Amino acid sequence: MSRLAAMRVLAMGVSLAASGAAFAAQAPSTSPIADPLAAAQAAQAAYERGVELLRTDPAASQRAFVESAAGWERLRAAGFGGGALEFNLGNAYLQSGDLGRAIARYLAAERDLPGDADLAGNLAQARARVASSFERTGSTMLVESVARAWHVVPASVRQPLFWAAWIGFWLLSCARMAAGPAASAAVRSTLAAALWTTGIVAVATGGSLLADDALRRMNPKAVLVEPDIMLRKGNGDGFEPAFAESLGPGVECTVLEERPGWLRVQLPDGRAGWVRESQAERP
């Protein structure tokens, strides 16, 4: 499951983004990372060491995977992100046995790496290990299938494309006004075609970004990360279980409501209940 190509992409992104992320690293809730590129390389090296030790020393291999996950988490907490980081973090969690957090990080990686074969394979492998499985409702499947149509192009590509098209549209509008009626028919036709093209691209990309944000707000996801979780009828341990079955790590759900320290979640089969916030991870 190691992917050195993803590591190289991430390392390049960390290097280029270091100056911009410095502000995030200075925030009170994060710890500054003096050399983000070295930190990324160390996290990946720990992962590779874990892979090498899998057969000869399982205990040392487990420690290496935990070390790798901790390294990627430090980078994420310092303000770095992106599909490659989330993918590598998911790999480290999966190998360390933290199934719920692995699935959550793979789902986060999907936003920047739609259609990635390695990611899809690893996510499918993680989901296959989940003890509890549920049938998805038709409405959930419909929302996901519609969203998948524009997720062929990652959000990290659509966002700069939107701004380029938006700025280009107004620059072309100014050029068309400056040309005036004295411009030749060929110039007017070219400007009109360019205006239509940039306008359509701006509307399509901007609309998809707004739709992404709306879907995340309407259907915020969470993944259970602890064993033997009981969904309860209210936001407190004193409330009765919503149903008899306990849930384990990796169960995916939709967040319906939030209260201090608690989340009301809905399972794919429609059943709902409350869990402690610490028992779930957000993608």
Tags for this model:
283 residues, Serine Threonine Protein Phosphatase 5, Tetratricopeptide repeat, alpha+beta, single chain, extended, five-stranded antiparallel β-sheet, 5 strands
**Name of the CATH homologous superfamily of the largest domain:** Tetratricopeptide repeat domain
Strand order of the largest sheet: 4-3-2-1-5
- The proportion of strand residues reads 5-15%
**How many β-strands, per DSSP?**
5
**N- to C-terminal distance:** 20 Å
The largest β sheet comes out as: 5 strands, antiparallel
Determine and state the CATH class of the largest domain.
Mainly Alpha
Helix content: 55-70%
Rg to the nearest angstrom?
23 Å
Could you walk me through the main structural features you see in this protein, from its secondary elements to its overall organization?
- With 283 residues, the protein is an alpha+beta fold.
- The protein folds into 3 domains: 4-128, Serine Threonine Protein Phosphatase 5, Tetratricopeptide repeat; 150-218; 221-281, SH3 Domains (SH3 type barrels), CATH 2.30.30.
- 60% of the residues lie in helices and 8% in strands.
- It starts with a helix and ends with a strand.
